[in-house]
Amino acid sequence: MKVTGDLTARTGFKDTIPTAFGYIGIGVAFGIIGQSNHLSVLEILLMSLITYAGSAQFVIVSMVALHANILSIVLSVFLVNSRMILMSTVIAPYMKKESMVRNIWIGTLLTDETFALSMNKLNYTEHRLAYSWFNSANLTAYLTWFAASGIGGALGNLITNPEQFGLGFALVAMFIGLLYLQIITDKAIRLGIQFSVVGFVAVIMYLGMALIPENILLLLVALLGCTFGVTLKHVFR
Amino acid sequence: MSLDKYVLLVILFSGLVTWLSRITPFVLLKKFTLPKIVVNFLSFVPISIMTALWVESLLVQHLGSLPSLNVENILASVPTVISAVISKNLMIIVIVGVVSLGVIKFVM
Predict the structure, then answer these.
(1) Phi, psi of A17 (to 5 degrees)
(2) Chains A, B: CB contacts under 8 A, how many?
(3) ipTM for the complex?
(4) Which residue of chain B has the CA closest to A180?
(5) B44 in contact with chain A, both atoms CB, cutoff 8 A
(6) Residue B98 is assigned to a structural domain of this protein
(7) How far is CA A7 from each of CA A14, A114, A178, rounded to the nearest angstrom?
């Protein structure tokens, strides 16, 4: 299943299938963990439907289990998801010609994964994105996540350790794949600079882990990576 | 099926802040255009975020000291990267990744 320049809803669905594997693995894991922390299937489903925040949902479950106050939970969720602001800012210019409602709708269901997919897609479409493609990718991810977390919540005690099947690695593998494809196909940034940014981000991530909770560190490291990259690009033009 | 009021409030308010983070740039950038330097800056977001998410999965955090290594994920990354270079196909990369970690967990 090669990525093509096609931007129809159908292709959006097809392009998202590899990601869906990861969503099933992590979504089921989320459901099981939610259930083991005394959330009902209804609560698990509502969280995936309304909050829809991937890794932040795991943070919520652990804080709810401790009966943390609502404000501190909401603040944590905001910090964990603040990288969404960065990703939406990157996508928004590609949706400028679409109506405000469509812009808001694409933003509403944007995730790390559909963001990464769309960035890769740009390299095959002469730097264009289409509403129909993006909406279909977003919906595929959303519904898969919703269904998987419900299944996880319902299975509950039957599977105690969902990680043992290696499915959780699907999303990591996807990021590895998309990172590699991004580096080799993005001709706008020189190869040496791209690899330097990857190395820089890896080192800062490693060192930063000693000091800053990893979920919040992600945003900080991304900002530093961009600063480093833009500086290199400026110096070595 | 129970629905606790506290849990419901957490879900709603967390959903609200997440939604605002996601949509605000879309609303603002419908009217404004970003300056060139910001666009240049943002062009590094994809590789920075993808690298950060990958590296995060290879480490185990212990606040106050350097992280330890997630050996299983590091080992599984090797065939995954190789399959990326050879196939350039996301589906194959994901399958190789999952099977690799499955095999590693089985052996270790």
Answers:
(1) -55, -45
(2) 301
(3) 0.89
(4) B84
(5) yes
(6) yes
(7) 11, 14, 18
